[in-house]
Amino acid sequence: MLDVKILTVGPVQANCYIVSNKEKDCIIFDPGEEGEKILSTIQKEQLKPKAIFLTHAHFDHIGAVDIVREAFHIPVYLHKEEEDWLFDPNKNGSGKYVGLPTYRLKPADEIINKEQSFEVAGMKFRAIFTPGHSPGSISYIFEEDGFAIVGDTLFQGSIGRTDLLGGSLEVLLKSIHEKLLVLPDDFIIYPGHGPYTTPAHEMDSNPFLHGF
User: Fold this and answer.
1) What region, left, alpha or beta, does residue 118 occupy, with left being phi > 0 and alpha being psi -120 to 50 degrees?
2) 211 part of a folded domain
3) Nearest-CA neighbor of 134 among 197, 206, 101, 86?
4) What are the residue boundaries of the Metallo-beta-lactamase domain, all occurrences included (predicted)?
């Protein structure tokens, strides 16, 4: 059984997820800010990072990418549609907000250009495309362990905003209904912000999904 640690980081309280196995190997999802906090947690738990996977490349999900990557010499995975967002503040959004750092990061090491399965240190999951909040949004499905890391596609009681570069409400709702709500009712959905949820809870109570 995999362990999921949740670190809430940065000015907009994004969720960084550290998924680890019993051997202490781990994968880091969306190291959004507070790199020292992430490194401290990894060291305290004696974890062995193997890779960084990004759900998308908005500033609040990428801020600590280079700090973590360089500390452990591990690859960064990102959707091809957002390949240039890591080093473009206008696309990742960091150049639009006064008082926030401007992010011009190094390119991703690995580009995800199709839906596919991964196995990292024995941890198995699928990358599925769930665009709408951003054109390259990915959800990572851990079928054997009953959870998914979905970025800003779906939240408890809400959905991702679609007024940013490449966003589309129609596409987002299609992604949610065709890719996430078809998961088992009790599947744990870990979002980019806020508490976890399940498909059953969202189908029953999410006002943005009713009537679609």
Assistant:
1) beta
2) no
3) 86
4) 13-193
The number of folded domains in the chain is 1
Residues forming a β-bridge with 85: none
> Quick one: pLDDT band at residue 212, thresholds 50, 70, 90?
low
pLDDT of residue 210: 78
User: At 158, which CATH number?
Assistant: 3.60.15.10
Closest to 179 (Cα-Cα) out of 130, 138, 142: 130
Q: To 5 degrees, how large is the angle CA 128–CA 133–CA 137?
A: 25
Rg (CA), the chain: 16
| Residue 90, domain extent | 3-205
The answer to whether residue 110 is domain-embedded is yes
User: Is residue 132 in some structural domain?
Assistant: yes
Percent of the chain with pLDDT over 70: 99
Position 99 scores a pLDDT of 80
pLDDT in the model for residue 111: 99
Distance CA 25, CA 178 (A): 32
Distance CA 84, CA 105 (A): 10
When the pLDDT of each residue in the chain is averaged and rounded to a whole number, the result is: 97
Coil, strand or helix at 2: coil
Q: Which residues contact 107 (CB under 8 A, 6 or more apart)?
A: 83, 84, 86, 87
Report the half-sphere exposure of 142 (CA within 13 A, side-chain side).
Answer: 22
* CB-based contact 49:65 (threshold 8 Å): no
What is the helix (H) or strand (E) element at residue 203, kind and residue range?
A: helix 199-205
In a domain, 212, yes or no: no
